[in-house]
Structure of Eukaryotic elongation factor 2 lysine methyltransferase:
Amino acid sequence: FLAARPLRSLPWPELEQSLRAAPDSQLLADILHKTILHPLCVKYPPSAKYRRCFLTELIKKLESTAAEPLDELYESLANVLKEEESTHCYKNYILPTGDCVSLSESTALISGGTTGLVTWEAALHLAQWALQNPSVFRDRTILELGSGIGFTGIAICKTCQPRTFIFSDCHPHVLRQLGENIRLNGFILEPDVTWSIQTETQGQKVEGEKCQNPKVIVAELDWGSVTEKQLLGVRADVVIAADVVYDPKIILALIGMLQKLSTSRADRKAPEVFIASTIRNPDTYQLFQAELDKVGIRWQMIPAHSSCNFLYDVQPDVTILQLFI
């Protein structure tokens, strides 16, 4: 029962004869192992539809022998049905350069307890602004806060020639999907490294390097627990974020993170900071601006196009703020 064999070629008569001759649990376990867990099936996994049809027919054949199917058969069928009803899809975004960003995204706004598995509008607007202003990112180290599944960062890596791009988030599901999307778009992730090791490698610029292939890192970054010492190792020239101002509960953590970035730069120039936000609740956005004023972080609004090339339906109210930390 190899994965490459079409369903119609499976020897149901022989299988039925075996079941009638020895309708015991061990035989069924062997069949399940050979058809679903066979090494070749693991290496070349059959489709969910194929496995659903196979398991359904196997259960029917077994029931016709008056034997009771194994629980493993029903559990396997349930898992296949769940897989067929996956909430994930693939989306392709065509960049103005003709390049493409391909992403695996959730079809649900909230999935796995997070909103970070979809691409939000501000991320699209920030990417469009970045593509129009590549000099902000060229040959520099970029830290993105709340990267989500990676659209903005991947678009910048493909078009703006950064030296190093650090994607960051704190949710494990998001980080896993983020890594998959980065690899899907042809980038090689740096091995998991500590912040201190990054300090040694990121600060070094290769003479004459054109940054066609930026160093790409995914970091687990919790705004509340990260230390100034750890941030000192990032050596970011530019900090960006999109759609991170949507909940009053996280605004103080975000501003605290920005303050840590400000005080952790030692004798280096403060990074340029750009935050794109979709104005869903004006009170929340005004709270963000008020809290920035309270801690002395100056800001200015950057003119942005009223429409985004990546959106084809209603254009949301999106603003981009440049912060001076």
Q: What stands out?
A: Residues 1-12, 36-45, 196-210 have pLDDT under 50 and may be disordered. The chain is about 40% helix and 15% strand.
